[in-house]
Structure prediction request, 215 residues.
Amino acid sequence: AIMGRIKRGALIVFEGVDRSGKSTQCKKLVESLKKQNVKAHFMAFPDRTTSTGKLIDEYLRNKDCKVNDHAMHLLFSANRWENVDKMKAFLNDGITLIVDRYSYSGIAYSAAKKNMEIDWCKQPENGLPKPDKVLFLMVNQEEIMLRPDFGNERYENREIQKKVFEVYQQLFKENDNFESIDSARSIEDVQVEVLKKTLETIKSVENLPLSTLDF
Ligand code: ADP
Ligand code: 2DT
Ligand code: MG
Prediction:
């Protein structure tokens, strides 16, 4: 008998400002999927374990560390590029990837800086695997202020977060793979919607080829 082709996994990305609940939802989602016998694997960007990731980690944790903004942007992008073969292998094996931040974080946090052109920021991302769905966690500023405090990393302050949110909103309008999730609800209520959207996405792309980002 002819063997059926392996159905590919879906590339699901979580985006949103700090404390919007991305990491919480990603972890729960991977558990929920595994419970339902859906093959899933968690990834996060920046991937702080690789050689580029160690430089990025130093940059984020040490605010005195001065690096050219353009060079830093390319390093964040390189940190994704060095994971492409691994990502494709998972997806082709039928394993769904649940990813905490991706190219859209790269664009939003860099374009929020002075003297950084958004069109320039998009370019290094072209050719990377295109997410089948970007779940954009939306929480208003008042709600986010009720959540546990910012940490000490670079970018963790209100002024930067406001600019980042503005770039995210532009990306939301420009990209058809974005879906907004109201995250000013309980963790459990958000998870119900996140799981539903993910299962729908897995089903709808399983026989379609993976696309590449084309900004
Ligand atoms: P992110 O990864 O987007 O920065 P986290 O998942 O780390 O956000 O969540 C930030 C903080 O807010 C954590 O303390 C988490 O427990 C809390 N939190 C996450 N989701 C919710 C929610 N829906 N309601 C209230 N608090 C939340
Ligand atoms: P967390 O580890 O708490 O998510 O913070 N960032 C991330 C960039 O500036 N560019 C990127 O390409 C990516 C993926 C956002 C990571 C911090 O790094 C920022 C917050
Ligand atoms: Mg997080």
Q: What stands out?
A: Residues 107 and 121 are 5 Å apart (CA to CA).
